[in-house]
Amino acid sequence: MADILIDEVLPGVRRLTLNRPEQLNAFTIDTYAELIEILRALKHDRRRAW
User: Fold this and answer.
1) Cα 11 from Cα 47, distance rounded (Å)
2) Residue 32 DSSP symbol
3) Cα(22)–Cα(26) distance, integer angstroms
4) Which residues contact residue 2 at a Cβ distance below 8 angstroms, ignoring those fewer than 6 apart?
5) pLDDT by residue (tens digit) across 1-50?
């Protein structure tokens, strides 16, 4: 199971959700690394609204 879920709530708008209920959504270095990887990928997403 992924620690960070991504869904598109509107065209060009993404919502990132922490998905670590068993750890009370604690933010670890691994979660931080996953978030940075996701944000870098989204930076180059041509479907963004702006």
Assistant:
1) 7
2) H
3) 9
4) 19, 34
5) 578 999 999 888 899 999 888 888 888 898 999 999 999 998 888 776 55
